[in-house]
Design goal:
It contains 39 helices and four strands. With about 950 residues, the chain is an all-alpha fold.
Length: about 950
């Protein structure tokens, strides 16, 4: 099972080279994994039909009870055959539907196959969390497939709408899963159904939340709005996702959980009422629409309501009817969608008002469509008839609620017959006053997939008994009635057959009066759900704008004060209520007097920040506070922390300086007396409260410190540096998450800087005239040798010739030339010595970044480009890739981030060891280097260009002044 699932995703990753090499014929190769899965499922038919199952489990994190569980039973067998069989045929259909020149074909092909893999894993999942993961994967891939034609606004909006509705439902479902798992003591679905948790408030709430997710996935009212709009996707997507796969996921979940939870209060009313309402509303809406695909979409909504009702009734015969109806619906709805694509392809339109005589021009296509339509209308001897008979018989012998549901399903079946006849009439028959639609011929390869599905519906009608053993194996999970129903095409004359005849006759009458029915439907139509959804989004957007305008005032001081006040309110309320300082040992002022001296100097630097008016002085003083904290780490005996703090503070100060070049030299904000009177108490109170909280938290320790155990564990592996071992081994998960956050933050900063790419034209007048920290001098220099007057100079930097003379410092260039390579060597040393000495990938990356910063400060952006010709994103991405690869490599031993160590011997060097934590640290090194380089290029080179443009404008203005009679500034 796992190999088949993995094959889907692996081949999907190679979709681009396959499409590049084979064009549309690549779909023939991509159809192999679903076809192989369908063949494998057929070999397991007898196992599933006998009531047994094929189980597979992998203990991912055994210490936490987290595992990946897969299970193939009778219901999963049906869904696997549908998801894989229909998926393979749809992929074959794509080879004829698309051309080699279709844009973005590779991305579409990969997403479609990946969706098939996610759907396969979903129906095989025997764990609630695993099921949710693949549930959301189908949501993501459906978003990509619906929004395939992203150049059109309707496609983008439809994809976003489907993503929004199904994701919100999925989040609600996740909460329900968590509650059920906690109540049952396990997340394994088979175990939960074998021994369901007792009904209670928590279980009832969980069931309703799970139903919310299932109904939103299967487009059951009031969540049905997204499915018709999803018809913006290409026809193969509609045939697969919206007929046989994705929309069936919600019905599958209802059917899967019904044996254990159908008796929970709230289950039957929600499922039956909403299912019945959806069946009627979808069928009624389909009678007045003119786009063939939209007609099928609303018909699908109607049928999904019917399926949900049957799956959730909660008795054995209804479950059997639901299972066969799931099979029948896929076998008639998927070919109808595919035929619609053929008609659109051949005639150039799907508007049934413009189509006429297509059946005569495309008789084979018409025959396939009629065959599938007869099954959808539930006429004998098709599979749809046998499924509808089973549904009527199950509801007929139920309780009062079931008989009410029976009446609604008969009315809904009449609507089904009516819109089915309207679809066939509109697509293929001649219409009075409408000229025959010109069409081009369709090859057999184009028609093969829908023909195969329609023929399956024809064969399984008389042969529905072949499926009885398999489908009954699922239905037998419910209490058996006195006379259990068995599937057959003919059960003799009876009430169910009479009801089928009434539904067929009613549908024929509605079709005969189609014009009046359409006018009546438009006259009494409610506001569309899509319109309501749009109004809700518009109102939410306006509310968010008003809330943002009220909260986001653009004042950093207000934001900081708000944060501190909220922190004060929360912490003070806890401190006052609990009084946790009782029994706590009194805090010591210092361990050694040197700590007090360093702390006093640090506080003095912080206080001096409040008195300066120049931004540069404030940055330097703020940096001194950081260096003071580093000195405290040194005094306390934490060289790793001190080294990291020194490097971070140095890089931060340089970044500040780079930004200050484009800012006024002095602070321009004037603080009134009353504001200062408010700010000072808030700041002092926050500092005091935080100090008390730290003291109380340290004094509240009840367990022995973990430091001794970590030291022992580190020594056990022959290492000495406990901090580095914690970062790359014992707590590598934290480091990996922090690395990802660091990369995301750097990408966000640089994206904001490069968001508005100014043309290389004029700068704003204020930018030209404004006084900056590092303003460019554009006055002509005097006394500088010109031509051959001076002695030849040696170039100390690779790009030194690009610097203006007034910007060069020979001393700085020489020092940079001498120190650049030693600093890089030092960074590599810090990387590899971390197991036994202070250092590590983070510090090493910062030191390497400082080497590149030195090159930039000495020679400008051209020198930086010479020193680091590769893009920063390469370093960042490669670092993340290496760290992630090391983490996944640990799975070979069953645990993510499992550490491996290799011991060897080299001549002249001696014994050595090399472990995966070092490789992981190399990833951190490259990531930090990429982040530093990215920020320097964004805040350095980008601002350099702006300064150069400003200088050029100023020089041009000076040169144009005498010609225009203006005074030169």
């Amino acid at each position: 099972m796992t190999a088949l699932i993995v094959c889907h995703f692996v081949l999907a990753a190679f979709a681009r080279p396959l499409v590049r090499a084979l064009g549309a014929r690549a779909f023939l190769v991509l159809a192999l994994p679903p076809a192989a899965t369908a063949c494998w499922a057929l070999t397991q038919w007898d196992t599933a039909a006998s009531g047994s199952s094929v189980d597979w489990s992998w203990a991912w994190m055994p210490d936490y009870g987290v595992s990946v569980d897969l299970r193939l039973d009778a219901l999963a067998e049906v869904m696997v055959l549908l998801a894989s069989g229909v998926g393979a045929l749809v992929l074959l259909y794509c080879a004829a539907y698309f051309s080699d020149t279709t844009p973005r074909l590779a991305g579409f092909a990969g997403s479609l196959l990946a969706f098939a893999g996610a759907m396969l894993a979903l129906v095989l999942s025997d764990d609630l969390i695993t099921l949710y993961v693949f549930w959301e994967l189908t949501t993501v891939f459906s978003y990509l497939l619906i929004g395939y034609d992203s150049e059109h606004r309707h496609s983008r909006r439809s994809a976003l709408q489907a993503l929004t509705v199904t994701t919100l439902g999925g989040l609600a479902m996740l909460i329900g899963f968590l509650i059920i798992g906690q109540e049952a003591g396990t997340y394994r679905i088979s175990a939960i159904l074998a021994d369901p948790p007792p009904a209670g408030t928590a279980v009832e709430a969980a069931v309703l939340l799970i139903l919310c997710g299932a109904l939103s996935k299967s487009a059951v009212w009031p969540f049905s709005l997204w499915l018709p709009n999803a018809m913006a996707a290409p026809t193969p997507v509609s045939a697969y996702l919206h007929a046989a796969a994705m929309v069936k996921a919600g019905v599958y979940l209802v059917a899967r959980l019904a044996p254990g939870f159908s008796d929970v209060p709230g289950w039957r009313p929600v499922v039956m009422v909403l299912g019945a309402a959806t069946m009627l509303l979808g069928g009624w809406r389909a009678l007045r629409l003119n786009d063939l695909k939209i007609v099928l979409a609303y018909g699908t909504v109607s049928q999904l309501g019917f399926l949900t009702l049957l799956a959730g009734v909660g008795n054995r015969d209804a479950a059997l009817a639901a299972a066969v109806m799931i099979l029948g619906h896929a076998l008639f709805k998927a070919p109808l969608f595919l035929v619609t694509g053929i008609v659109d392809h051949a005639a150039g339109t799907r508007d049934l008002r413009k189509l006429s005589g297509v059946g005569r021009a495309l008789p084979h296509v018409c025959a396939v469509a009629v065959l599938a339509a007869l099954s959808m209308a539930a006429l004998p001897p098709l599979l749809g008839f046998a499924a509808k008979e089973a549904a009527f018989e199950a509801l007929l012998h139920g309780d009062t609620a079931d008989r009410w549901a029976l009446g609604i399903t008969v009315a809904g079946s009449a609507l089904t017959v009516a819109y089915t006849a309207r679809f066939v009439w509109g697509a293929f028959l001649r219409k009075p006053g409408v000229a025959d639609t010109p069409v081009h011929r369709v090859g057999p390869a184009f028609l093969a997939a829908p023909a195969a599905l329609a023929l399956c519906g024809l064969v399984l009608g008389p042969g529905v008994g072949w499926t009885d053993r398999l489908l009954s194996a699922y239905a037998d999970a419910f209490p058996a009635p006195a006379h259990p129903y068995h599937l057959a095409l003919w059960h003799g004359w009876g009430t169910a057959l009479l009801l089928s005849a009434v539904a067929t006759l009613g549908g024929a009458v509605l079709f005969a009066a189609r014009d009046r029915v359409a006018r009546l439907s438009r006259r009494i139509a409610w506001p569309t759900a899509d319109g309501v959804f749009g109004q809700l989004l518009l109102g939410l957007e306006r509310l968010s704008l008003q809330a943002t305008g009220f909260v986001q005032r653009g004042s950093l001081s207000v934001y900081l004060a708000t944060t501190l006040l909220v922190m004060l309110a929360g912490q003070l309320s806890v401190l006052i209520a609990d009084r946790p300082w009782h029994g706590a040992p009194a805090p010591r002022l210092w361990d050694v007097p040197l700590q007090g001296a360093v702390a006093a100097l640090t506080c003095a630097a912080a206080l001096l920040c409040l008195t300066v008016r120049r931004r540069m002085k404030a940055v330097v003083l703020a940096g001194l506070t950081g260096y003071g904290a580093a000195l405290l780490f040194v005094v306390q005996g934490g060289p790793d922390l001190a080294l990291t703090q020194f490097c971070v503070e140095t890089v931060s100060m340089i970044v500040f300086v780079l930004v200050l070049r484009r800012m006024p030299v002095h602070f321009q904000e004037s603080v009134s007396t009353w504001r200062r009177a408010v700010r000072i108490p808030v700041a002092l109170a926050a500092a005091a409260t935080l100090g008390v909280v730290v003291w109380v938290a340290a004094a509240a320790r009840v367990a022995p410190p973990a430091g001794a155990a970590m030291v022992e564990e580190t020594a056990h592996h022959g290492l000495k540096d406990v901090v580095a071992t914690i970062l790359v081994d014992l707590r590598a998960w934290d480091t990996m998450g922090e690395s990802a956050v660091l990369a995301a933050a750097a990408i966000g900063v640089t994206s904001l800087i490069y968001l508005h790419r100014r043309a290389e034209g004029t700068a704003a007048p204020s930018e030209v005239r404004g006084r900056t920290a590092w303003s460019v001098t554009t006055e002509p220099l005097t006394g500088v040798p010109q031509g051959d007057e001076g002695a030849p100079e040696r170039g100390w930097l690779a790009a030194g010739a690009t610097l203006a003379p007034e910007h060069r410092s020979v001393v700085f260039e020489v020092v940079t030339r001498l120190l650049f390579h030693p600093i890089l060597v030092l960074s590599v040393y810090l990387l590899f010595c971390a197991e036994n000495m202070p250092g590590g990938g983070f510090v090493g990356g910062l030191v390497a970044g400082l080497a590149l910063i030195t090159r930039y400060l000495a020679g400008g952006r051209f020198e930086l480009a010479e020193a680091a010709p590769l893009q920063p994103g390469l370093f960042t991405g490669l670092g993340l890739f290496i760290s992630t690869a090391v983490a996944l490599f640990g799975l070979s031993d069953g645990t993510v981030l499992h550490a491996w160590t290799y011991h060897g011997h080299l001549p002249l060097i001696g014994d050595y060891e090399f472990g995966t934590p070092v490789v992981f640290d190399c990833g951190v090194y490259l990531l930090v280097l990429g982040v530093v380089l990215d920020i320097v290029r964004a805040l350095g080179a980008k601002i350099d260009r702006q300064i150069e443009r400003a200088a050029a404008e100023k020089a041009a203005a000076r040169g144009a002044g005498p010609e225009t009679g203006e005074a030169t500034p």
